[in-house]
Design goal:
Radius of gyration: 28 Å
Order of helices and strands: HHHHHH
Distance between the termini: 15 Å
Number of helices: 6
Structural class: mainly alpha
Largest sheet: none
Strand content: under 5%
């Protein structure tokens, strides 16, 4: 899904911010997934410790039970349950907002990609060089443009023609 853009200032701004939009989306994803990683790592630690402990039903060889092992086993089972509940609680309280924010950034990124993909290869290369890859003076040198106004005019003309096609 993408947005339809009708005006030059908006398409210019969206293309200019494209790389930043991707960084923002990636930060959102990392911020959302960080607690999951923490919970998963703790859960894995608990599960590893549980496997190392003998079952609490094992005897101590004297007809009694090893109480320390049973207590530790029960503690780890409780900790495992708490971690699973924490994961569920985190999802329930954060997933809706996360998905709405993610959709917002995904739509803006998809919009820029839609318009970039509609350009022919030479125009797209110029726009990418102009907005992302080169400084303005490097862009002027590469495309044999003698002044700033002509450079900006060329970019605007490419974008205006793109808007007319849509």
């Amino acid at each position: 899904m993408h947005l339809t853009i009708h005006t030059l200032p908006i398409i210019r701004n969206e293309i200019r911010t494209y790389k930043s939009l991707i960084k923002e989306r990636d930060k959102l994803i990392n911020d959302y997934e960080a607690p999951f990683k923490t919970f998963r790592n703790k859960l894995l630690e608990v599960e590893e410790k549980l496997e190392l402990i003998k079952s609490p039903g094992k005897g101590d060889g004297l007809g009694g039970f090893v109480q320390d092992s049973a207590d530790k086993y029960n503690y780890l089972i409780d900790k495992k349950d708490q971690l699973k509940k924490s994961i569920v609680d985190y999802i329930q309280s954060n997933e809706k907002d996360y998905l709405e924010d993610l959709k917002h950034w995904d739509v803006r990124i998809a919009t820029v990609e839609y318009y970039l993909n509609k350009m022919d290869a030479l125009d797209r290369k110029f726009i990418e060089d102009f907005y992302y890859n080169l400084s303005k003076t490097q862009c002027m040198e590469r495309y044999n443009i003698t002044n700033n106004k002509s450079l900006y005019r060329k970019a605007d003309n490419i974008l205006l023609n793109l808007l007319k096609k849509d």
